Amino acid sequence: MIRTLVKRLPRLAAGACAAALLAGAAAAAAAEPENDYPTEARADYIFGCMAANGQSRESLSRCSCSLDALASLLPYDKYVQASTVLSLRQGIGQRTTAFKSTKVFDDQVAELRRAQAEAEIRCYRGGT
């Protein structure tokens, strides 16, 4: 019996090490904040932010901070939905009325506005 255990020990140890590595990797992945904003969307946001706030190095830093804060507060799919509603609200005519007067769309835009306000507080008023 002892010989069998001694023979199996390297395999058992290897299995335990592999399990520990997998558990560590899963914990590390869970600890990292999820960043589901694609690079193109990030660049578009920062270019627009810099156009509105000046084309300076400080503006780049604050706009990047603002996007990171926004991304930590609002998942990308919700950002896209609210941004789409805002774009559609800029139109005129009967087709845009639904986007201007529907509570669901109002809630989506309000959630985006709250996240933007929090990002502004973190990055523009609180310093970077």
From TrEMBL:
<protein>
    <recommendedName>
        <fullName>Secreted protein</fullName>
    </recommendedName>
</protein>
<keyword id="KW-0732">Signal</keyword>
<feature type="signal peptide">
    <location>
        <begin position="1"/>
        <end position="30"/>
    </location>
</feature>
